[in-house]
Design a protein that fits this description.
With 471 residues, the chain is mainly α. It has 28 helices and 2 strands. Strand 1 and strand 2 form a beta hairpin. Helix 5 packs parallel to helix 7.
C-alpha cells in the first residue's frame, strides 16, 4: 500500500512535477550508503556533520528521512545505528514513520527496536490511524501482530472503508492464525462486501473462511454478493465446496442488477469448468439460464468459456429464441457460434429425448436436418446418439454448420476441441474428413491443440502423416 504511493511520488519527482530540495540532493550519498547497509560510511558521514534526517523528498533514491530509508531497505544494523545517534523514530512528512514501514514489511526485529525507542504504535499511514497493526496483519507476521497488541495497538482501527481493518486485511491474505488471534482479542466481524468472509473467499483461503464461519460470520453476507459468489470469480473450488457443505445458498442472487444463480453465471463467463461441474452436481438451478445472460468484453474472453458454455448446455441451461445471443460488447466468437447453433426450441427437445426426436424427424413431424442433429449429439457428448445417427445417416460423419459470421464448424471439429476422444474415433472410423478446414484455416487438429486436447491433436497428426483416415 505504502510502496505504491511512494512509487507514484517518485515518478512525479522524476517528471519534474515535484521539486526535490537541494539539501536532499546533498544527502544522496548518505541515503545510498544507508540502503546498501554500509554502516562504516554512514558513521563517517554523520561524524562529518551530515544530518541523518536530511531531506523529505519524493524520488526513488531519496524517499524520506534516513531512518525510514534504512527501515524500507530492511537494514537492521543501520536502523540501530541511526536510532542510537538520535534519529527521531516518529519522524514523518508525507511518508509514514519508520514503524509503519517495518510492520508492512513484516520486520519483527526492526519493529521491536523502534518500539523500544518509543515509536508510536498508533502512527498513521496512507490508510488511516494505527497503520502498524494493519501492515503487520497484511504481512502475515504473527509474532509482530502479537507485539503490537501487547503495546496496545487499537484493534478496531479503520482504514476509511470500515472498522476492524486489520482483521479484514489478515482474512484477505489468508493469514488464518492472525485472524484467530484478532478474533480472540475482540475484533468484530462486520458485514458487507468488504467484510472478512467475502475477502477470504475471493482469495480461496479455505481455512480462513472456515474459521470465520466458526466465529459466526454470516455465510450469505457480502452486500451485493455472497462468499460463494466471490469464490466463482477466481474458480476457488475447495472454498466453494466448504461453503456449500456449510449451507451456502447455491442459487443466491448477485451483481449490480441482481441475477439468480450468480455464482454459476460467474463460473461460466470466467471459464472455471471444475467449479461449473461442482455447482451442477450440487443442484444449481439451471432454469436461470446462466449462459443466456452473459455480458462480457473482449478482454474477458478465454478459450475455456466454450467448455463451460457447453457444460451448462448439456445440463439444461435454456438458450431458446436467441436469448444467449443478446450479449453486450465483444464476445468470444467460438461461444457465440455454439450458442447460436443451440438457441432453438428444437435443441431443447432433442436434449430432453434425442431418440424420440429422431423418430419424429423420420416421421416428418420435425424438420431438422440430420447434420444438425449430429452436431447437437456431439456437443451434448451423447455417444449412443452419435452411433444411432451414423447408422441412420452415414454422411453425418462429416456433418457441418455455418454460423451467421460465415465460419463453418464440423462435428469432428467440435468433438476434437471438447476432447471427446471416443466420438472423434467413431467419426473418423466412419469417414470424417480430418483435413477439412474452415474459413479461419482451422481444422480439427488445430482446434484440439488450441483447447489443450493434445492427445487428440497428436493422434490426428499421426493419421494425417500416414494419409490414413482410420483409428
Amino acid at each position: 500500500m505504502i510502496r505504491k504511493a511512494a512509487k507514484s511520488l517518485a515518478f512525479a519527482a522524476g517528471m519534474g512535477i515535484i521539486a526535490v530540495p537541494v539539501n536532499a540532493m546533498e544527502g544522496e550519498n548518505l541515503l545510498k550508503a544507508i540502503r546498501n547497509g554500509d554502516c562504516s560510511l554512514v558513521k563517517s558521514l554523520l561524524d562529518q556533520g551530515m544530518n541523518y534526517d536530511i531531506g523529505e523528498p519524493c524520488d526513488g533514491i531519496r524517499s524520506g528521512c534516513a531512518l525510514r530509508e534504512a527501515t524500507r531497505a530492511g537494514q537492521f544494523d543501520m536502523v540501530k545505528l541511526l536510532v542510537e545517534r538520535g534519529a527521531d523514530v516518529n519522524a514523518r512528512s508525507f511518508f509514514p514513520p519508520a514503524l509503519v514501514w517495518a510492520c508492512e514489511l513484516g520486520r519483527l526485529d526492526i519493529a521491536q527496536l523502534l518500539l523500544d525507542h518509543h515509536a508510536d504504535v498508533h502512527a498513521g499511514g496512507f490508510y488511516g490511524e494505527d497503520a502498524p497493526l494493519k501492515g503487520a496483519a497484511t504481512s502475515g507476521n504473527f509474532e509482530l501482530v502479537q507485539l503490537l497488541l501487547e503495546h496496545n495497538a487499537f484493534i478496531h482501527a479503520s482504514d476509511g472503508t470500515g472498522p476492524d481493518a486489520a482483521l479484514r486485511y489478515a482474512a484477505q491474505h489468508g493469514h488464518t492464525k492472525i485472524v484467530h488471534l484478532l478474533l480472540r482479542k475482540g475484533a468484530h466481524i462486520h458485514g458487507g462486501r468488504n467484510s472478512p468472509l467475502p475477502r477470504a473467499a475471493v482469495g480461496g483461503h479455505t481455512s480462513t473462511v472456515n474459521l470465520l464461519l466458526d466465529w459466526g460470520a454470516d455465510i450469505e453476507d457480502g452486500g451485493d454478493t455472497t462468499p460463494l459468489i466471490e469464490t466463482a470469480r477466481g474458480g476457488r473450488i475447495e472454498t466453494a465446496k466448504l461453503l456449500l457443505d456449510r449451507g451456502a445458498n447455491i442459487n443466491a442472487s448477485g451483481g449490480f442488477l441482481p441475477q439468480p444463480s450468480y455464482a454459476l453465471w460467474l463460473a461460466v463467463i470466467f471459464g472455471h469448468e471444475k467449479l461449473v461441474k461442482l455447482l451442477i452436481d450440487r443442484g444449481v438451478d439451471m432454469s436461470s439460464s446462466a449462459v443466456a445472460r452473459m455480458r462480457i468484453s473482449d478482454s474477458d474472453v478465454t478459450d475455456f468459456q466454450i467448455r463451460t458454455a457447453r457444460l451448462v448446455l448439456e445440463n439444461g441451461a435454456c438458450v431458446e429464441n436467441g436469448a444467449a445471443l443478446r450479449w453486450g460488447g465483444g464476445i468470444g466468437k467460438d461461444v457465440v457460434r455454439l450458442l447460436e447453433f443451440c438457441s432453438s426450441h428444437a435443441f431443447t427437445l432433442f436434449r430432453s429425448n434425442a431418440n424420440n426426436f429422431i423418430e419424429e424427424v423420420q416421421k416428418g413431424n420435425q424438420r431438422v436436418h440430420p447434420h444438425q442433429m449430429m452436431l447437437w449429439a456431439v456437443i451434448l457428448n451423447n455417444m449412443a446418439v452419435v452411433q444411432k445417427l451414423l447408422a441412420l445417416y452415414p454422411d453425418t460423419a462429416n456433418a457441418e454448420y455455418t454460423a451467421k459470421d460465415g465460419i463453418t464448424m464440423t462435428a469432428l471439429m467440435y468433438a476434437s476441441l471438447f476432447g471427446f476422444y471416443d466420438i472423434v474415433s467413431l467419426l473418423v472410423e466412419n469417414g470424417a474428413n480430418i483435413y477439412r478446414t474452415n474459413q479461419q484455416q482451422s481444422d480439427a487438429i488445430t482446434l484440439a491443440a488450441r483447447f489443450g486436447q493434445y492427445h487428440i491433436a497428436g493422434r490426428l497428426l499421426i493419421l494425417q502423416a500416414k494419409n490414413k483416415n482410420l483409428f
